[in-house]
Amino acid sequence: MDQKTLIARVADSFGGDPRIAALFLSGSFGTGTADAFSDVDLLAIADPAEHEALAADWRKTLETIAPIVHYNRLPHALVLNAITDDWLRIDLHIASPEHLANTAQDCLKPLVDRDNLHATLRPETPEPARNPGRLGWMVGEFIRILGLTPVAIGRGEVELMTVGNTFLRRFLTDLLTIEVNPRIPGGMLHLSRVLDPERMAVLAAAPLPQLTADSAIASNLALARTFMPRAKTLCASLGVEWPSAFEAATRRNLQRALPGRSIDW
Known about the structure:
Layout lengths: L2 H11 L6 E7 H5 L8 E7 L4 H15 L2 E6 L5 E6 L4 E7 L13 E5 L18 H16 L1 H7 L2 H23 L16 H9 L7 H26 L5 H14 L8
Parallel strand pairs: 2-5
Antiparallel strand pairs: 1-2, 1-6, 3-4, 4-5
């Protein structure tokens, strides 16, 4: 079974439930950017009184379409994740009509639309507003984690250094994404559709650490040399105060712990 067959069978079965006002494809299938590796994201709109019953029936419906080897309910919203024995991934979000208030037509493709809800949505997703507060937090966390490098070195915790390096790399990825400020962010597993080739090359140029202290230190410093100048520029453009004292103290701390290295960015 492929994704299109799965979608068609879900639309015929679950979409036929009269309790569902609308069933939309969301995610990459909703925006028309899906490929052979995409999961199937669905949004079901229904009266809140029907949500729990629909959630219970959803798994039963899936089991009639394909064997389910993994099933999970997210804690923060009525989002149900499933994986079939062919490793097709399908997620269903059950929501109220009010959920559509901040959604646009270019993000959803209707499979069932009994109340013609799609026509009531704005046509296009607007450019999102950048979040200066998040940027300021991210810069502070990058500097803090970078500044913990001497602690990990002193304790011989190279494995933990590589974990910290993962956070630094993620902050760089997030920073590049904020620079682009995509109208529709896209999925976590398709970064090359969000970042342009130049920014993808920036990520590729940052060395991955090996399980040695020298390698982890070199990778952390390389990430800092890429992140810091770009973050300063972005902070200046968004009116975010740069933590100069924190940066200077961290640089001094790193220089004391790593006297043979150039702590510059």
